[in-house]
Write a structure and sequence with these properties.
Elements: H1 14-23, H2 25-37, H3 41-53, H4 61-73, H5 77-89, H6 97-109, H7 113-125, H8 133-145, H9 149-161, H10 169-181, H11 185-197, H12 201-214, H13 217-228, H14 233-251
Helix pairs in contact: 1-2, 1-3, 2-3, 3-4, 4-5, 5-6, 6-7, 7-8, 8-9, 9-10, 10-11, 11-12, 12-14, 13-14
Length: about 250
């Protein structure tokens, strides 16, 4: 059996650990543990993530929370964001949206796009904080301008519908396109919808297939309903394709 132990002098930096995690999760877990104990912030955050996911190491969500706390106390913004995720969803701790909002806000104020997006989601839905759609919109715009693809899609939706802002179809189209190109499956679906309305059916179908490949079960469930009422028969026919994929995910 291969010896996965690493000596203290072999501590790697965050980028090296991420690469190793993709190539050899078990060996990476050992290296991440050593680096985390040596105080490498990226390693501490990564250790929290692999403990949360059970990647290359036995899953231990409460311990994941502890390592996120250690990294966050050292100033690691993604670890602070992940503490928010854990408290929002009850991963390894009691679910508490108010506590989650506090963690998201701290990382958001420091400029982390994912935290800005997550905090905006709580503001938009009134979880852990009072509903504030205008602030949510402002934060989605801030994250979108930082390159956050999911925020681009939501910003596009506000602009398309004229919710808490002036409607701007051209700007909405631009943000949907950028979200789609950025790899967000919801953005790809939104952009496909606009293309279909414009009569660009072939390109719309291409984006629908891309969204299908990346979409989760909740997204697919909602999309089946939307596609079923599409005007164009080829677009409407994608409802069956999405339903088939949804059935595969549910039964796997």
């Amino acid at each position: 059996m291969a010896d996965f132990r690493l000596r203290r002098e072999e501590v790697l930096d965050g980028d090296q650990l991420k690469t190793m995690l993709e190539e050899s999760p078990a060996r990476a877990a050992q290296a991440i543990l050593i680096a985390a104990r040596e105080g490498v912030l990226d390693a501490q955050a990564l250790l929290g993530q692999i403990l949360l996911d059970g990647q290359g190491i036995e899953q231990d969500q409460p311990l994941a929370v502890r390592w996120f706390e250690i990294a966050a106390q050292g100033g690691h913004l993604m670890a602070r964001n992940m503490l928010g995720r854990c408290h929002e969803h009850g991963w390894g701790c009691v679910a508490d949206a108010t506590v989650a909002a506090g963690h998201y806000r701290q990382a958001a104020e420091a400029g982390l796009d994912w935290a800005i997006y997550n905090y905006a989601n709580l503001l938009a839905t009134g979880r852990g904080v009072a509903v504030d759609q205008r602030q949510a919109l402002s934060l989605y715009r801030q994250a979108a301008e930082l390159g956050h693809a999911k925020s681009m899609n939501l910003l596009g939706r506000y602009l398309e519908e004229g919710k808490f802002c002036l409607a701007d179809p051209l700007a909405a189209r631009s943000w949907y396109r950028r979200s789609a190109l950025g790899g967000d499956f919801r953005g790809q679906f939104s952009y496909a919808g606009l293309l279909a309305e414009e009569g660009q059916i072939g390109e719309a179908l291409e984006w629908l297939h891309k969204a299908l490949a990346g979409g989760n079960s909740n997204f697919l469930r909602v999309s089946v309903v939307a596609l079923s009422s599409a005007r164009h028969p080829q677009i409407r026919g994608m409802a069956e394709v999405y339903q088939q994929r949804l059935s595969q995910l549910v039964t796997s």
